[in-house]
Amino acid sequence: MKIIKVANYEEMSLVAFSILEEKLKLNAALNIGFATGGTPLGLYEHLVAANVNKEITFKDVKSFNLDEYVGLSKTNPNSYHYFMFDNLFSHIDINKNNVHIPNGETLNIEEECASYERLIKKYGGIDIQILGIGGNGHIAFNEPGTSFESVTHIVDLDESTRQANARFFENINEVPTKAITMGLSTIMNSKEILLLINGKKKKEAFQELISGNISEQFPASILHKHHNVIVIVDEEAYSE
Distance (Å, rounded) from C-alpha 179 to C-alpha 216? Predict the structure, then answer.
């Protein structure tokens, strides 16, 4: 696990962009795993700008999102499908047929999970996976107690996770209680992982991560078992 300490959110976003830009220039047909939430937004802004300026292209990129709420339509502003198109995909030259996000509207969730897992394998796996971390150590929607062997599955969202995401909704009651998420073993099968951590609220999670303790009660700790993880952390999250 390589840790890169940066001054602030802006530098974290720029360093992450530089890493991804280099990968794209070496392999224009990357399979990229994307995350949602506030953490990667700065990175996505840099990707859009570089694409508009024709410095990089996404024409041959295949994207796979980590997760999606169950029960929200693709046009719902709080769905991750909407989030990704609003903040990235609608502004770059990616082939929309190469965009893959779990279908939260499906009537057969178990089949959707199995199908998504097969899809990732069909395209040869994820080359680089972008991750954030929750205050309780969750990555994607893999809450504490999730098996390290888990593949794409449906999850009951932890109350702390729903509270953290409530700011995007009118009130806590509108936050879905279930989601489809890549499993921990799915994420670990990525060739490279880029973990972004920023802000005082993530300080305890970062300290637990670097403690080296590996436990299913802190899902992100599994990343210590991966051979190629880069953690970019800002001063606020890094400070003891």
Answer: 19
